[in-house]
Amino acid sequence: MPLPKKNQSSSEDIGALLETLKVRFEKNPQRHPNLKWSEVEKKLTANKEKLHSLSFMEGSGGEPDVVVFKPKSKEIIFCDCSPESPTGRRSLCYDEDARRSRKQFAPAGSALGMAQAMGIELLDEEKYYLLQNLGAFDLKTSSWLLTPPEIRQAGGALFGDRRYGRVFTYHNSAESYYAARGFRGFLKL
């Protein structure tokens, strides 16, 4: 998915995005107990850059919603909550080094490169498990996870999915890419 230039969104687009986010927020209260949409909206409208990133998340199929990973935290975090790995962010190597190292059939991009361009971060293993506590995600797909440096230096990268009622973390060559593997991101306000 080509990323539009920053500040390219009209006030009409922003209004539509805020309405979509509000509907999703109200439909899924279990993801953010004790939070009110008015608090979230106030922070969002004060930060156009974050709205721009959320627009990318939404436009690439991420279905971002507010999640509370730590019960007493006051942080507002938007996370990709699409049932499967976002469709507009699949068939990517883990990072740019992996993409460039492919001898044949290099994909158009990488998970880390696209996340950086979108202004979001990949979920790490801990956040992926916390997200999975809020619902059942990646039942048919998988998602690249932020990989510890020692694993990446050895040529690998982590990904996760949910199968058989359990959440799994696996490893793969960072150069690999699959039509059913994308990445999930998060954005702190």
What does this protein structure show overall?
With 189 residues, the chain is an alpha+beta fold. It has one domain (1-189). Helix content is 34%, strand content 20%. It has 7 helices and 8 strands; from the N terminus they run αααββααβαβαββββ. Strands 1-2-8-3 form a 4-stranded antiparallel β-sheet. The protein has a 4-stranded mixed β-sheet with strand order 6-5-4-7. Strand 5 (156-163) and strand 6 (166-173) form a beta hairpin. The longest helix is centred in the first third of the chain and has 17 residues, at 11-27. The radius of gyration is 16 Å and the shape is globular.
What keyword list fits this structure?
189 residues, 4-stranded mixed beta sheet, globular, 34% helix
CA-CA gap between termini: 24 Å
How much strand content do the residues show? 15-25%
Please give the share of residues in helix. 25-40%
Structural class: alpha+beta
Poorly predicted runs are none
What is the overall number of helices?
7
- Secondary-structure element pattern, one letter each: HHHEEHHEHEHEEEE
Averaging pLDDT over every residue, what do you get? 92
Number of strands: 8
Shape: globular
Radius of gyration: 16 Å
Largest sheet: 4 strands, antiparallel
What number of domains? 1
In the sheet with the most strands, the strands line up as: 1-2-8-3
